Amino acid sequence: MKPKDVIEVEDRSVGCDGGGGSLGHPLVYLTMNEENKAECPYCGQIFVLKEGAKAAAH
């Protein structure tokens, strides 16, 4: 499996469906850890909070 690119996002919560349409995986919602990083347990996609992004308070 080839490494995936890191995706920068502007919110501490992100959804991942594998990006493969019917070849993807179930939609999961991930929350950033204290290092502002999240990794999908299905496909290993890594998401990081963009530099300077304001995390929404929930």
List the defining traits of the structure above.
58 residues; mainly beta; HSP40/DNAj peptide-binding domain; three-stranded mixed sheet; elongated
Q: What name does CATH use for the topology?
A: HSP40/DNAj peptide-binding domain
Number of domains: 1
- The CATH fourth-level homologous superfamily: q5lls5 like domains
Mean pLDDT figure: 88
Distance between the termini: 35 Å
Helix content: under 10%
| Helix and strand composition category | mainly beta
Distinct helical segment count = 0
One letter per element, helices H and strands E, the order comes to EEEEE
Number of β-strand runs: 5
Task: Look at the structure and give the CATH class.
Answer: Mainly Beta
Strand-residue proportion = 25-35%
Please outline the major beta sheet. Answer: 3 strands, mixed
Unreliable stretches covering 5 or more consecutive residues: none
> What is the global morphology?
elongated
How big is the Rg?
12 Å
For the largest beta sheet, what order do the strands appear in spatially?
1-5-4
* Second CATH tier, the architecture: Sandwich
